[in-house]
Amino acid sequence: MTRETQPRTREGEAPDQVTIPDKLYFKIGEVCELTGVKQHVLRYWETEFAILHPQRASSRQRLYRRSDVENILRIKRLLKNEGFTISGAKKLLAREQRGEQEEAAVESPAEAPSVVAAMQSIRHELQELKRLLED
Fold it and tell me: Which DSSP string do the residues of 71-112 spell out, in sequence order?
């Protein structure tokens, strides 16, 4: 691999264990160096994967956040190591994203107990009404 496409790793780390510097934003060239993915491929992936949406500087230059770099590494692993097609990887990532959103809605600590209590109260009232109507 050339310097441009070889991901940065610490000595003794596996090639897919990339060290991401502690920065807020990364330019596209830095992301290419970190991930081993070429610029034109990153731009293409942005059109295919909804989870990739780098911000733009006033100069229109792409600025990737750490989460974007992590998502790029995940996509790369799915496509290159795990044998997914782009379509299959998109479906998997979308399913995971929906699952996280559903879990967050279900596990909302502030709302869950009050909703459960309200449902139990309604159920109890309906049972009482049923008994009254049956008599």
Answer: HHHHHHIIIIIS---HHHHHHHHHHHHHHHHHHHHHT-TTTH
